[in-house]
Each structure stands twice: as structure tokens, then as C-alpha cells.
Amino acid sequence: MQQEMAYDAQGQPHPVVDFHDDYGGAKLGFWVFLMTEAMMFGTLFLLFAIYFYRHTESYVASSGHLDVWLGGTNTVILLVSTYTMGLSTMMLRRGRVRAAVLLVGATALMALIFLGIKAVEWNMEISRGIYPGSGVLDALDRGEILFFGLYFVMTGLHGLHVIAGVALMSWVLLLIRSGGIRPEHTIVMKNVTLYWDFVHLVWIILFPLFYMIGV
Amino acid sequence: MPSFYHETHTLFGHLRNPVLQWIFSIDHKRIGLMYMVLMFTLFFLAVGAALTMRAELFAPGAQFLEPQTYNELFTFHGVTMIFLFIVPGIPATLGNFLLPLMLGAHDVSFPRLNLISFWFYVLGVILGISSLVTGQGFADTGWTFYAPYSIRTDAHVLSTLSAAFILGLSSILTGLNFIVTIHRLRAPGMGFFKMPLFIWGLYATAWIQVLATPVVGITLLLVILERTLGIGIFDPTKGGDPVLFEHLFWIYSHPAVYLMILPGFGIVSEVLPAFTRRTIFGYHAIAISSASIAGIGYLVWGHHMYTSGMSDIARVIFSFLTFLVAVPTGVKIFDWVATMYKGSIVLATPMLWILGSIINFTVGGLTGLTLGAIGPDIHLHDTYYVVAHFHYTILGGVIFMFIGGLHYWYPKITGKLYDEGLARIAFGLAFVGFNMLWFPMFLAGFFGNPRRYFDYLPDFTVYHQISGVGALLIASGLLLIVYTFYRGLRSGRDAGPNPWNATTLEWHIPSPPPLENFPKIPYVDFEPYEYEAGEPLVQFDENFRRIR
Ligand code: HEM
Ligand SMILES: [Cu+2]
């Protein structure tokens, strides 16, 4: 496509930014989107903080029930996966498409392992009878009800984001195959990397909040 | 040149069927018009509900409604007016249509996303309305969904909550699209302080949409989870705190008030220069006050909760901050008055609506100050005084501005002129009707008539009856506008590109605009409102090179 020009009163040409293929626009748009995500998780963190302030002891006690080792493993997995995802964008930029594909695949695989471990953890709680609305949980004290209420909501919401991440990565792989993402055209790839960074960042905050205060 | 009515871009390339061409169109102008048709249909439904309420309230005692039906009616009315109509209203309709035109752009930054937000909106409407016909009745919580009642009630709250959630998503996407468009697609030369003021209004609004809506979104989601799974975050029996719900709800919903009003202010700032034929007074002050209203607006939510249990210090702080918002708002109003001062005012219909709205909004704003003060609010809280106050700001203020804007841009959108005579009569009916409808309610509320009741003490009869007559007047005024617009479409004269002698970019292209707005993007190195002897100073030739 030819670059459109606007001419000022002196007849000088000035390039017009078009909405097609506006790299800066796509990047800005994604940052703004991440702000909305931050506001959403921020609200939940705020709720967590308020109830922690009110029920510190039962929060610490309930936190002790969670498995730090499983949670910690998941943290490491996510850390490594942001690294591979970031690396994949770099590789693509350098034209090493095959390496990029492998790295995206590896990231998606780690995301799936993360989800698997998460499922094991949830299952452990649920088999102890602890899930929202259960008789066992409702018989516990209020701080514990709130702790586990928030635990399931926040890790659940985070889990949904991980699932979305896997979907996005699969889409990226398809786009690379069909030429929608090329070394000279990486904006989708960059935004997905940014998204994954965000998902990992949220977990980095969630992990100490839920798992470490009882240690 | 064929207009956007004749050709369009769609999500799926070239479609033959004209209906599909609309449904799948990614042209911002068509999307704006689709919003407009749907939103005004909903608006009139909600007005219908309001008239039914007013009829029930015409005399004390039960007339023809069950109390529960009344609860559902005011919830339907409130939810529709707020979530489906006025919050998304001006940005989604006029904003979508005009933003790229006023910026000198071919479209918004993400045309497909724009269409997707429209579909989300439709989905929200369907979910919201569905509970009307699925047999369980509409929600009965009021539009605020206060916990724990919204957790306990048997009425159909779930679909209404999900509707509000999805509408929030749609609103976020629109806001995001606008922010990026404004940052990226301004015509070359157009700095931020050369943008028309309507764009400033939309810009401030978009940031509120993006930063506040997620808060209410997740809050409503928690109520949904509360009802379905019983997680207990807001449920006092499980240790949750319902007052926290109020905090989170108003952290969104107070800024949402500015979400409604800022685009309206933007319209005022467009119409005034065009009908006084002068540069707007205090351009920078108006632009910056939009931004500061949006900013301070985040900090004042607590004034909705003086009676909900808050420390005295918190109440004093919130009260102080509330008064602070009045400052940038006052700045705007004085700038508008200064613009009119010694201007040669043309009292065409858009100008009438704008003048009416400034009057109504001033009444609404001043009564808002009495509510922002703690003492009076304790007395007036949840009385008709509050109902009158917010109808004065929203209906008398924002909607009057909105309707003024519709008249102003009607020639641009349709290419036709409407009948001035009819339009003026409609304004007169609406203005008189509006004040008859709501002014008595200040008094009724002041003397202690509580809101959200389907009945009242006989002492209040006279106020409600005057109000009932006013409601009929304004409703007929609104219907007359619809008729006027319809007749304009059928048999109006051709408008030409610039019937009002206005200066901003959209008036330099044909009416209705062609598909990609500008054959050539102009270079914009001039202020948006420059007049010389009553004529726009800046003129272009057909290739958008400046000739004057
Ligand atoms: C013809 C115009 C209108 C009439 C006759 C009307 C009438 C009413 C009435 C009778 C109530 C119930 C008062 C009560 O029982 O507490 C009400 C409530 C309300 N109205 Fe309107 N109204 C109109 C327009 C609007 C508009 C344009 C909006 C906003 C865009 C609006 C927003 C609301 C809200 C938010 C409530 C509170 C609902 C609740 O308590 O949950 N109304 N209106
Ligand atoms: Cu408020």
C-alpha cells in the first residue's frame, strides 16, 4: 500500500498514519487492555487485603493448608515459561522461525503443566470438602470462608487467563504457519508475549499471598 | 460521490444482502447508527416503564400495580436507562460516528473490534431483556444491585447481572478503541490542543471506561458467584461485608456519572461556537477541566454512602472532594457563558436544547452540592430529592445535550434538514414538561417522601400529580422529535456540507459522508473554532489543500 500524505499550506507533505497495520496503535491498544486487567485483579487484591486485615489469624491458618511445594513448582514453571515466550519473539525477530515455533510450543506445554498441577491442588482441597458453599467450609470460621472463597475465585480467574494464554499461543502457531506472523511483522507475537508476562506477574503476586503467609 | 449508505466494508468482504451489509459492517458510521437505532428503542421502552410508574403514582394508594411489579419496573427503568442507554450512549452513537470525522481519519483504529463491541452490546441487551419474558420477572434490586439483597432475592437477578457485565466489556472495548484512535489517528498537524472539544470529552470518558469499568465488572461477577456458588465475599452470614460491595460499586458508578456527562459537555462545546459564530472562550480550560473532572471523579464515591456506615473522617474527606469536582465543572459553565456573551446567538434548535440543558444541569449540579454535604444528605438520602437531582443532571442535562447534538449533526448524518418549527415545538414541550415533572419532586423529597415506593402519604398527592402531567408533556415532546426526524428523512431539504457554518473537519466533507470520510486527509495546523465575520476562517479545496 502506498503511504498517504497530507499537504500543509506551504505544500510540504506529511505522512498520514493509517489504521491498517498501525504497529504503534496495536501496541498501545494492548497496553490499555492490560490496564483493565490490572484494575480487575487489583480489585480482588484489595478485597484480599481488607479481609486479611480483619481476619489475619484465620488467614494464616488457612494458608498453612495449601501445598507450598506444588504452588512453588508452579511459580518456577511460569517463570521459565515467560522466559521461553520472550525468547521466541526475539528468535522470530532474528528470522529464526523454527526456533520461535519450538519455543512457543514449549511455553504452551508449560502452561498446560501449570494447569495440571493447579487441578491437582484444587482437587486436594475439594476432596477435603473445602470448596465454596460446602458444608465443611461453611462450618469453619469466617476468615477461613473468605480466604478460600478468594482463593478459588482468584486462582480460578488466573487459571482462565492461563487457558486463554494457551489458546493464544496455538493461534500464534497457526499464524506463523500461514504467514500472518513474520519476522518483519511481529506485533501479534509481541502482544501475546506481553499478555503472558502479565499472567505470570499476577501469579507472582498470588503465590506469596495465598501460599506463603502461613509458612 | 457515493455516501457510506451506498457502499461499505464488512467483516467478510463484499456482501450482497443489504441487511447483512449493515450487520457485518465495520464502518464506524454504520456501527454508530446501529447503536443509535437500538439504543433509542430501548430508551423509549424505559420511558414507557417510567410513564407506567408515574401513572401508578398519580394518586395515593394502589392503582393497578402490585408492589413487586413496581419494584421490577423501576429496576427495569433504571438498568435500561443507565447501563443500556446513557452510559454507552453518546460515545457509542455520536462518538462512533464523529470521532474519525473530527480527527481527520479514515476510521477508528480497530474497526473489527468496534463491530465486536456492538455485538457484545446486543448480547447484553438480549440477556438483560430476556428475564422479562422467561417468566420469573425482572430483577427487583434497583439498578445498584446492593448486596445482600441481590444475593437473597428470588427474582431473576442473574441474567441482569450478566448483562451488566457484558455491557461493561463492550464499553471497555469502545473506550480502548477511542483512546488508541485519538492517540494514533489525528490528522497530521493536529496536536492534542487542536482537537475539537467533543473529542476531549470522549477522550476523558474513554479513560474512565477503561479504568473504572473492570472494577464494577469483577464486583458484579462476585455477586454472580455469590448467588451460584455461595463464595461469601459480600454475604454477612459468611463473614463477607456488604458495605464493601457498596464501595466497589460506587468506585465505578460515581465516575460513571462523568462517563455520562463528559461527552455531553463535549457536545455543548461544539454547538456553542457554531451558533454564536465565535471561538469558544477558554479552550484550554475546557479541555483540561474534562480531564480533571475525570480524575477527581474517582475520589468521591463515598458521598453515596454517608448513611451506610463510614467513619466521620472519611465522610468529611469525601464531602470535601465532592465539592472539589464542582470547580472544573464551574469553569466549564463560566466558559460557555463567556462564549455566549456578546456573541450573535442564533437560536436554532440545537442551541435551544443546549441552553435548556445548561439551565437544567445547573439546577441539578447545585442540588448535588446539597447532597454532597453530609448534614443535608443524612436528611435527604433515598428521598425523591435525590431522584429529582439525578434526573435533573442526567435527563435534563445529559439527554438534553444528547438531543441537541442529534439535531446539530442530523444534517451531517442524513444529508437532510429537519423542520425547524416542529423541532422547536418539541423542545418547548420537553423543556416545560421536564421541569414540571421533576421540580415538584425536590419539594416532595425535601418534605420526606422516600424513593422506590409504589405508594405515598396523601400529603404528597399534589406534587405527584403535577409531575404526572409533566411526564406526559415531555413524553409527547420526545415523540414529536422522532416524528420530526422521520419527516426530515422523507421530505427534508438537502442540507449541503455545512448548513450551520461550523468549523470542525466533519463539516468540510459532503453530507452524508463518503465511505472513507476523506478523499485526502487534510493537514490541520489551525485551531478548531476560528471565525472571521461569522464565516469559518479555514477553507479547503476538493483535494483538502488549504485555500484560506
Ligand atoms: C420521561 C422521562 C422519565 C421519567 C418520567 C422517569 C421517571 C422515573 C420514576 C417515576 C422513577 C422511580 C422513582 C422511585 O420510585 O424511586 C425513576 C427512577 C429512575 N430513573 Fe427515571 N424517568 C425518566 C427518565 C430517566 C432517564 C433518562 C434516566 C437516565 C438515563 C433515568 C434514570 C433513572 C434511575 C437510575 C432511576 C432509579 C431506579 C432505581 O431506583 O433503581 N430516568 N424514574
Ligand atoms: Cu456520586
Task: Itemize the secondary structure elements and their pairings.
The complex is a heterodimer of chains A (215) and B (548).
Chain A: E1 5-7, E2 13-15, H1 23-54, H2 56-63, H3 68-93, H4 97-127, H5 135-139, H6 142-178, H7 187-212
Antiparallel strand pairs in A: 1-2
Helix pairs in contact in A: 1-6, 1-7, 2-6, 3-4, 3-7, 4-6, 6-7
Chain B: H1 18-23, H2 28-56, H3 67-103, H4 111-133, H5 149-152, H6 157-184, H7 197-229, H8 242-276, H9 283-296, H10 312-340, H11 349-372, H12 374-380, H13 384-414, H14 420-446, H15 461-491, E1 531-532, E2 535-536
Antiparallel strand pairs in B: 1-2
Helix pairs in contact in B: 2-3, 2-4, 2-15, 3-6, 3-7, 3-8, 3-13, 4-6, 6-7, 7-8, 7-9, 8-9, 8-10, 8-13, 9-10, 10-11, 11-13, 11-14, 13-14, 14-15
Bound molecules: protoporphyrin IX containing FE and copper (II) ion (CU).
The site of copper (II) ion has 4 residues of chain B, from helix 8.
Protein name (chain B): Cbb3-type cytochrome c oxidase subunit I
Membrane topology (chain B): Multi-pass membrane protein
Keywords (chain B): Electron transport, Heme, Iron, Membrane, Metal-binding, Respiratory chain, Transmembrane, Transmembrane helix, Transport
Overview of this structure, please?
The complex is a heterodimer of chains A (215) and B (548). Chain A is mainly α and 215 residues long. Chain A has a single domain (22-212), classed as Four Helix Bundle (Hemerythrin (Met), subunit A) (Up-down Bundle). Chain A has seven helices and two strands; from the N terminus they run E-E-H-H-H-H-H-H-H. Chain A has helices spanning 23-54, 56-63, 68-93, 97-127, 135-139, 142-178, 187-212, and strands at residues 5-7, 13-15. A two-stranded antiparallel sheet of chain A has the order 1-2. Chain B is mainly α and 548 residues long. Chain B has a domain at 62-298: Cytochrome c oxidase-like, subunit I domain (Cytochrome C Oxidase, Chain A), CATH 1.20.210. Helices cover 65% and strands 1% of the residues of chain B. Chain B contains 15 helices and two strands. Chain B has a two-stranded antiparallel sheet with strand order 1-2. In chain B, a hairpin with a 2-residue loop joins strand 1 and strand 2. In chain B, helix 2 packs antiparallel against helix 15 (461-491). The radius of gyration of chain B is 23 Å and the shape is globular. The mean pLDDT of chain B is 93. The chains are: A mainly alpha (215), B mainly alpha (548). Chains A and B meet through helix 1 and helix 6 of A and helix 6 and helix 7 of B. Copper (II) ion binds next to helix 8 of chain B. Chain B: Residues 16-525 form the Cytochrome oxidase subunit I profile domain. Chain B: Belongs to the heme-copper respiratory oxidase family. Chain B: The chain crosses the membrane at residues 33-53, 73-98, 118-139, 159-185, 197-225, 249-268, 280-301, 313-334, 346-369, 389-410, 422-446, 466-486.
